[in-house]
Structures are given as structure tokens and as C-alpha cells.
TrEMBL record:
Name this protein carries in UniProt: Cytochrome c oxidase subunit 6b-2
InterPro entries: COX6B-like, CX6/COA6-like_sf, Cyt_c_oxidase_su6B
First and last residue of the signal peptide: 1-19
Domain of life according to the entry: Eukaryota
Pfam families (alphabetical): COX6B
Species the sequence originates in: Olea europaea subsp. europaea
Keywords per UniProt: Disulfide bond, Mitochondrion, Signal
Gene Ontology cellular component terms for the protein in this record: mitochondrion; respiratory chain complex IV
Keyword Coiled coil (UniProt): no
Subcellular location: Mitochondrion
């Protein structure tokens, strides 16, 4: 008898719990703001490879000119991190450290 009562309570509460969970998930989804690099007239095509590479170079030029602590370079970091695959960034970082990076820094 007690088991039947618990099952009945669960059957009544489960839809409410699912509804509450879905509502909270929906709220959370709309609170998260996804951003990427803004459109750049220098890169009008859908292939963003050059855009990624240019933003990476711009970030490191900014850091070289203004220093690591400068907040001005943060936007370039956000841009290249949103455009470039992580594997490319890792490879470019290794190349910069070894002095074999192909771009103008």
C-alpha cells in the first residue's frame, strides 16, 4: 500500500519537476550571450582562415607594443580565440617560442 502511494505521488510530481527543469533550462539558455569576432570588411568571404591568422598577429603585435598587462589587447585575443581552431593556436604558439613563426610579428 505504501509503495503504491509513493508511486502515485511520483507520477503526480514528475511532470511538474520536468516542467520546472525545462523552464529553468530555457531561462539559462537565454541568459548566455554568445559572441564572436565582428564582421571585418577585409575578409568578406565565408572562409575565415586569413581573418583568424590576422587577428592572431594583431593580438601579438598589440602585446608587444603595449605589454602583457594592457587591457587594450583583450579584444584581439577574444577575436582570434573565437575564429581560430585550438590546434592552430597551439602550433603558432610553439612556432613563436622557437622563432619559426611565418607571420610578421
Amino acid at each position: 500500500m505504501m509503495l503504491n502511494r509513493r508511486i502515485l505521488i511520483l507520477e503526480l510530481l514528475l511532470p511538474l519537476l520536468i516542467q520546472d527543469f525545462c523552464f529553468r533550462l530555457f531561462e539559462l539558455y537565454y541568459q548566455i550571450e554568445l559572441k564572436t569576432a565582428p564582421a571585418d570588411f577585409r575578409f568578406p568571404t565565408t572562409n575565415q582562415t586569413r581573418h583568424c591568422f590576422t587577428r592572431y598577429i594583431e593580438f601579438h603585435r598589440c602585446v608587444a607594443a603595449k605589454g602583457e598587462e594592457s587591457g587594450d589587447c583583450g579584444k584581439f585575443a577574444k577575436y582570434y580565440r573565437s575564429l581560430c581552431p585550438g590546434e592552430w593556436v597551439e602550433k603558432w604558439n610553439e612556432q613563436r617560442e622557437s622563432g619559426t613563426f611565418p607571420g610578421p610579428l
